[in-house]
Write a structure and sequence with these properties.
heterodimer; A: about 120 residues; alpha+beta; 2 helices; globular; B: about 425 residues; mainly alpha; 20 helices; about 0% strand
């Protein structure tokens, strides 16, 4: 199953980090990305299902992970990147993004597949 | 010849046991929640048609499973969309019928899948509750609506949205893997406890469906214990619920008002049920994996075995609250600890413990109710009245409201600066 993952940072996370902190984080992000790309889990953009199908995984700076229904929406979060992933189901997607090395919000939304058009 | 009333009574008993089992198996083979519920319903309707003529079969669960399987296959044949699943169900239905008759060793797997999927954290809490009660608890949509004091349309919409999300977002139909299990099991227990509390806090003036929620939750939790016999926390939660239910009759006076623990007639408690629940709790604790529900049950057990309020082992209760605070460092737990401390160390000490909690609890009626009671015991009557008025301004439950009103009138009705 393919999902769009919107990666947003918070003032406590990436966009509050100093240049040094960002430089320190870069290699871990790159290594993570490379690992999942090599495993075929990262594909690439696409139309999304309605916002009502969204699930949010919050990885706090202390490593605590929470999963909630809905979009992140709040303006203080800034979308800083995205991934289209291909994994068996939502639990596999959650398991993958739990380990994203940066304290971000990752919104996982299924892509619209060929035979279904939401709102039609 | 069996009478229709007898058939219906027998069916009602079977429905509760079997409906969730049927739906759970059908969701797996049909991969469609709505179709699964419709087929389960059709099988039950078919039973109501046949049993008055042919008598209730010796194994009603097996009869229903066979009927549901036949209906599911008919349905798949009629629908081109599902034709590709026919091969699956043909292979799978033997497995389904083998595992679904009552008492079969593997019969729980599907219901456990269903329970974890209903309580998936990617669904809203109210949807988790509605789905659990509807699909496993066997309550129909109007009953869920009456239990939660919302309209049928609201419940129907929650169910439709939740089922669509399960399908569209790819929420898997399975028991989580070991790494995710503790957090996910915690989510299931939270939903069951939430359902329990909705019913337990209901008063006599509430609907039957609402009052029955506590029993529904207890039944669902006993099912979970049966399905996951190695887990300690479900046993702890079940013991906690049973310890509460064993004392439920003494909680309301003849006028329907809440009776406080200190004033309850302990001879009206079900002491045999308390002993059983206590034994269950000890079973759970022996596993050496303590958790918040086991500790809460231990606190309630401490109250339940005390011969009188005065003879309660307050030191033990405070120690248990300290353990609970380590597992669950919330201001509500700290408030309960302070209230227990009043019994050991006096109301002044407890009042001092409450003050730091004010910023986080001042919108909660029980914070003010507890303060009011401590102030009364200290003879600070004007302040006690003000605190009780604050509690009244925030309380929602009618039974609790009457208790607070009575307490306020006992404090004297002289007007003083309260909330407006």
């Amino acid at each position: 199953m393919q999902y769009m993952v919107l990666i947003a940072s918070t003032p406590e996370g990436w966009h509050g980090f100093s240049d040094d902190e960002r430089r320190a984080l870069y290699p871990r992000l790159e290594a993570w990305w490379a690992e999942h790309a090599a495993a075929g889990r990262i594909v690439e953009g696409h139309q999304l299902q309605g916002v009502e199908t969204a699930t949010t995984v919050r990885i706090a700076p202390d490593g605590e992970v929470t999963v909630t229904d809905g979009p992140f929406a709040e303006a203080k979060e800034i979308v800083g990147g995205y991934a289209v992933i291909d994994v068996p189901d939502l639990d596999a997607a959650i398991a993958m993004w739990r380990t994203w090395p940066s304290p971000d919000l990752c919104e996982i939304r299924p892509l619209v597949s060929g035979d279904e058009r939401p709102g039609m | 010849m069996t009478s229709r009333a007898e058939i219906e009574r027998s069916l009602a008993e079977v429905v509760r046991e079997e409906r969730g089992r049927l739906v759970a198996g059908l969701v797996r083979v049909l991969n469609d929640w709505d179709a699964a519920e419709e087929v389960a319903q059709d099988a039950l309707v078919s039973a109501l048609e046949h049993w008055p003529r042919s008598g209730v079969p010796g194994n009603p669960g097996a009869w229903l499973t066979t009927t549901a399987r036949r209906l599911a296959i008919d349905r798949l044949r009629r629908s081109a969309r599902y034709r590709d699943r026919l091969a699956t169900i043909a292979a799978d239905s033997d497995e389904m019928s083998a595992r679904t008759p009552t008492g079969g060793p593997l019969d729980g797997d599907d219901r456990l899948r269903l329970l974890f999927t209903c309580c998936h954290p990617a669904l809203r809490e109210e949807a988790q509750v509605a789905l659990t009660l509807r699909t496993i608890g066997g309550l129909d949509t109007p009953a869920v609506a009456r239990a939660f004091l919302v309209t049928e349309a609201t419940v129907a919409q929650r169910l439709v949205r939740a089922k669509r999300k399960i399908r569209v977002a790819g929420i898997p139909y399975r028991v989580p893997e070991a790494a995710e299990l503790p957090a996910r099991l915690d989510g299931v227990l939270r939903v069951l406890y939430l359902i329990f509390n909705e019913g337990y806090l209901a008063s006599a003036s509430d609907t039957v469906e609402r009052r029955d929620l506590a029993r529904d939750a207890e039944w669902l939790t006993s099912l979970l214990v049966q399905l996951m016999p190695d887990e300690a926390e479900p046993m702890g939660l079940l013991a906690l619920m049973r310890l509460h239910l064993a004392r439920a009759d003494a909680r309301f006076g003849t006028d329907g008002d809440l009776v406080l623990l200190a004033d309850q007639d302990r001879s009206r408690w079900d002491h045999a049920a308390i002993r059983d629940a206590d034994r269950l709790l000890r079973d759970a604790l022996r596993r050496g994996r303590p958790g918040r529900y086991q500790v809460q049950a231990a606190i309630v057990a401490c109250h339940a075995v005390a011969p009188t309020y005065e003879q309660t082992d307050w030191a033990e209760i405070i120690a248990l609250y300290d353990a609970l605070l380590r597992l669950e460092p919330t201001p509500v737990v700290a408030l309960n600890r302070a209230v227990a401390r009043a019994e050991r160390d006096g109301p002044a000490a407890a009042l001092a413990d409450l003050e730091p909690l004010r910023p986080r609890l001042e919108r909660w009626h029980l914070f003010h109710a507890a303060r009011g009671e401590l102030l009364r015991r200290l003879g600070r009557i004007d302040e006690a009245r003000d605190a009780t008025r604050w509690a009244l301004a925030l309380v929602v439950n009618p039974g609790e409201r009457r208790t607070l009103e009575r307490r306020l009138s006992q404090l004297g009705s002289a007007r003083s600066a309260g909330p407006t």
